[in-house]
Structure formats: structure tokens, C-alpha cells
Amino acid sequence: MTDQTLTADIHRIQRIIPHRYPFLLVDKVVDIKGYESARGIKNVTMNEPHFQGHFPGKPIMPGVTIVEAMAQTAAVMVGTALGMEDKNMLVYFMSIDKCKFRRMVVPGDVVEMNLTTLRGKPGGKVWKFAGIATVEGEMATEVEFTAMMDLPKE
């Protein structure tokens, strides 16, 4: 592991994870400290398709998409640390635990997602993460989740 702090812009994110519109839910990942921690940024806009039905007249970002955005942030963190650009890495949820929603997220918000690795190591398939999503310093969502990293064989 390195002491270097890294950043992943949208181009690097798309080289690491396969998600694309309308399901790419993280715009930038900053403060990547190896595979230990990172901070994802999600700019919430009214143009996102889920706001057409969730809810008409009162758009609220679905909680499951906030959790998915945190999982994508974790995948980018690990993918960056392991040099997985252009390697077709896939990540699958295995469990979601201790999930709580504390604040609504609406168009115009900037969601900051702080992710920490609780368990996982290079070469390992199963990783566990803790995440806290905030808007303007106020907690919106907290969660722990386990994911399987399907890393391509070299």
C-alpha cells in the first residue's frame, strides 16, 4: 500500500467500473488512500430518471441509489488501489447491513460519501465497507455492506 492520496475523475471511474448512464452514480472520487478509505462526490440533478417517478412534485433520491453510489465509490477506491483500469472488474453486493436514512437527498444537493474498508486485501474477493453519506455536513445515510470483487485473472 502507498501513502499517496489519489483522485479518480469521471474518465478514470469509467475505466474501472462498468456502470454507465443512467446507473453511474458517482461523479468523482477523491482522497483515495490506497484501499483504506476514499470520498465520493455525487452531484444530484433533476435530470436523473428516477426523479420522474420518485416522487412527482417532490423529487427525492431513492435511498437504494445512495447506497449504490457508496458501493460504486468503494469499487473505484479498490480498483484505483489495485490498478484495475481497463480490466473489466465487476463488483456484486453480498449484504447490506446497519443501513439508516437520516436526511432526504434532493436535486441540487452534493452528496459526499466517505467510505472505509473494514475487511479486504489485495487478491481477496470478499470486502466489507462502512459508508457515511452527507449533504452540507449533515448525515443523509449510513451503511455497512459486503461485496465480492470479481477481478479478472492476469
Sequence-ordered SSE layout with sheet pairings:
Blueprint: E1 5-8, H1 10-16, E2 28-33, E3 37-43, H2 63-81, E4 90-101, E5 110-119, E6 126-135, E7 138-150
Antiparallel strand pairs: 1-2, 2-3, 3-5, 4-7, 5-6, 6-7
Structural summary, described in words:
The chain has 154 residues and is α+β, with helices and mostly antiparallel strands. The protein has one domain (5-150): Thiol Ester Dehydrase, Chain A, CATH 3.10.129. The chain is 17% helix and 40% strand. The protein has two helices and seven strands, in the order βαββαββββ. It is globular, with a radius of gyration of 15 Å. The mean pLDDT is 95.
Question: What is the CATH C level class, in words?
Answer: Alpha Beta
The largest pleated sheet is described as:
7 strands, antiparallel
**Element order: H for helix, E for strand:** EHEEHEEEE
Corresponding CATH superfamily: Hotdog Thioesterase
| Helix content bin | 10-25%
Unreliable residue stretches: none
Count the DSSP helices. Answer: 2
Cα Rg: 15 Å
Q: Alpha-carbon distance between the termini?
A: 20 Å
The CATH topology is given as Thiol Ester Dehydrase, Chain A
